[in-house]
Amino acid sequence: MTDNYDVIIAGAGPAGGQAARDLAARDYDVCVLETESEDEFPSRSNKSTAGTFPSTMASFNIPDEVVMNFTDDVVLESPNNHYHRHQPGAVLEFADFKNWLVDEAEADGAEYLFDARVSKPVMEGGEIVGVRYNGDEEVYADIVIDATGPSAPLAKALDVCDLRREKQAIGIEYEFEGMDLAPDGYGDLTDAMMLRLDHDIAPGGYSWIFHTGGDTAKVGVCYIQNEGHRHNAKSGYTIDDYLQYWTESDPRFANAERIAGKQHRGSAHIQLPGRMSTDNFMAIGDTVPTVDPLWGEGIDKCMRSGRVAAATADRALTNSDRDTSASELAVYDQLWHERVAPKVKNRLFMTEMLYRASNERYDKLLEDLHRLPNEQLDAANGGSPLAMFRMLKFEDLSILASTARDWFSD
To answer: Can you give the residue ranges of the Digeranylgeranylglycerophospholipid reductase catalytic domain (predicted)?
Structure first.
C-alpha cells in the first residue's frame, strides 16, 4: 500500500462507495478509509431502510441480488386515512448493497483500508493534503472527500457545510416477521413501502413499514427535534419508547416478532447546507445535512452526490495543471444543487411545514391526495411553489407564518 493517492475517501457508505466506484473505473488511484473492520462491515453502519426506485436501480446498475423485495406501491398513512399510489420500487438488503459497492470499486483497483478511523485533516499551507487516522497514521492525496455522515470530522475541521447541526433527526428500525400486512381498517401493505404521518407515534417526524417479502417487514420511527416534536412529544419518551408504543397498539404487530440481530439506528441533521467544497476537498452524502427526509430517498441522494463528486474530481485531475483549488471544486456545489437536490430550499421549507401540521390536518391531506392529479403532487414534491400553494388550506396560514418566521430568523 502506498501513502499517496489521487483521491482519498473517508467513509464506505453509499456516497463514498459510489464515488470510489466511479473514480476507480476511470483509473484513478483511490483509497477508502472505513472505521469498521472488514469482518464486521457493515454491521454498525447498517442504518438505512434502503428503499429505492427503478430510476436509481437503473442509474447505478444496482443488481437484483441485493434486493430483499420488489414493491409495487407507495402508501401514505395518517391516523385515520391512507393513500395508495402505484410506484414500483425495491427494498434493498443494505449490508449486501454496501458490500457490492466495495466489490465493484475493488475490482477496478480501489484500495479499501478497514479498521481506519479518520480523525483530522493533514494540512500544509492552509490546505488539506491528506488525513490522519488511527492516532498518528497519515495518508495523502490531491483530493480528499469526507463521506463519514454526521460525524464529519474533516468537514468540521475545515469549516465546510456550515455544520451547526441544529435540528437532529433520530431514527430506529427493527425487522419483524409474522406481520399482518392488511388488517381491517388499514391499507394493504403487501409489496408496498408505507410512510405514516402521526404525531402519536413519531412527533415531528414519520414512521414506516417496508414489506420485505412473505410476512416480514422493516419497521421504524424517526423524529426530528423541531417545533412539531416539541409541541407533540410524550414526556420522557425515547425513540425506542415510540417504536414500542406503536408495535403494542397497532394490530399489524399482534403476532409479529422481532428478527434477532436486525436492529438499526441512525441520526442526521436537517438544515440547508452551505458550501460543500474548498481547496482539495469535498463533503458528500450524509456529511452534507440531510435534505427533505420524507420524500428525499436517501440512498439516491447519497449516490448522486458521490457521482457528481467523482465527476468534479475527474474534471480537476484531468486539467493539465491538476487544478484542485476551491474555485475548480466549486463545480461540485453547482452540480449538487442541479442534480442531487434541485430546489432544495423550497422542498425543505415544505418539509418543515409538513411536520408542524396536526394529525387532523394529516387526515385532510390524505383525503386531498385522493382527488389531486398525480402531476400536482409530483410538482409539489419537486419543489414547485405554485403546486405547494395549491395544496394549502386557510388553516395552514398560521403554519406558513410560523415556519417563515423561524426560517428567516435562522
So the answer is: 191-244
pLDDT of residue 273: 87
Full set of structural domains in the chain with CATH: 5-48+95-163+272-340 (3.50.50.60), 51-92+166-269 (3.50.50.60), 344-408 (no CATH)
Contact 131, 154 (CB under 8 A): yes
Give the C-alpha distances (Å, rounded to integers) separating 32 from 85, 112, 119, 132, 230.
Answer: 39, 5, 14, 13, 39
Check if the beta carbon of residue 169 is closer than 8 Å to that of residue 292.
Answer: no
pLDDT tens-digit readout, 179-206 = 999 999 999 999 999 999 999 999 999 9
Number of helices (H) and strands (E) in the chain: give both, helices first: 13, 16
User: DSSP 3-state assignment of 161?
Assistant: coil
Spell out where 270-333 has E strands: 277-278, 281-283
Q: What is the 3-state secondary structure (H, E, C) of 218-248?
A: EEEEEEECCHHHHHHCCCCCCHHHHHHHHHH
Show the DSSP H helices in 69-111 as ranges: 94-107
User: Running DSSP on this structure, what letter comes out for residue 196?
Assistant: E
Q: Is the pLDDT of residue 288 over 80?
A: yes
Is the pTM here over 0.90, yes or no?
yes
Cβ atoms < 10 Å from Cβ of 64: 8
Find the mean pLDDT for residues 77-99.
95
Q: What is the DSSP string of 113-131?
A: E-S--EEEEEEETTEEEEE
Sign of CA dihedral 35, 38, 44, 48: positive
Cell 463528486 locates to 309
Does residue 66 contact residue 164 with C-beta atoms inside 8 Å? no
Residue positions counted in the chain: 410
As a whole number of angstroms, the distance between CA 173 and CA 217 comes to 10
Share of the chain above pLDDT 70, in %: 97
Q: Which residues pair with 5 in a beta bridge?
A: 141
